[in-house]
Amino acid sequence: MTELGVLPAEASVLVNARTATSFSSRPVSEEVLRQLYDVVKMGPTSGNCSPARFVFLTTPEARERIKPCLSPGNVERAMAAPVLAVVCHDPLFFEALSRLGADDTLRDWFAADVGLSEETSFRNGTLQGGYLILAARMLGLDVMPMSGFDAFSLEDTLLAGKGWRANFLLGLGYPAENVPHPDHAPPRAPRLSFEEACFCLS
Q: Is residue 189 situated within a structural domain?
């Protein structure tokens, strides 16, 4: 048992890590991205539906393809990331349910309800995007989440024929050499207190 007020070392991926503002020039290999996905895919989703899909843009040329889709404030940051991950979800995730060990009847249930399948894929795909952030930090990568982009334009550019929906972007890379130690970094932005954000029912 963890003593009250004493956090395990694993909590540092949230407590101590900061959103990246720059990255090292060190490339992120496909082997690392495969290892990253192998961690992410083990996180729980409802009914093991696993709707998240990820597009990793690993070259300047690939990132340039979506430059017109980005909000002006995100262009420089997105282009500078060694890898830009597009976190997507597949509304037709239910076509793989039989291979994922789900009840055979679930496929037809989701197929008959477009609203339910979209809601389920978005919710669980977002959850898996959160796992990607945590897993990247555990593997020594820095992460820069971004949401400023035209999703429909990006989908037309990258996802034509796949049917995937774009949710948010993540810049991924190794920490920049000039990043200050957490003890010397600027103060973190405030967060809501437990009393403001939570309540317990008994």
A: no
Give the C-alpha separation, 8 to 96, whole Å. 36
Count of structural domains within the chain: 1
The pTM of this model reads: 0.91
Q: What is the pLDDT of residue 1?
A: 45
The 10 Å Cβ neighbour count of residue 172 is 26
Q: Is the residue at 8 inside a domain?
A: no
Q: How far is CA 22 from CA 25, 37, 145, 179, in A?
A: 10, 23, 12, 8
CATH number, domain with residue 99: 3.40.109.10
- Alpha carbon dihedral 32, 86, 42, 12, in 10-degree steps, equals 70
For the packed helices 30-40 and 114-138, what is the interaxial angle rounded to 10 degrees? Answer: 120
The tokens 């949230």 sit on which residue?
Answer: 14
Structural domain contains residue 184: no
Q: Model confidence over 110-167: pLDDT tens digits?
A: 999 999 999 999 999 999 999 999 999 999 999 999 999 999 999 999 999 899 999 9
Q: Which domain holds residue 62?
A: 17-175
Q: What angle do CA 188, 189, 195 make, to 5 degrees?
A: 110
Strands 142-146 and 52-57: unpaired
> Tokens at residue 65, please?
């393809």
Is residue 7 situated within a structural domain? no
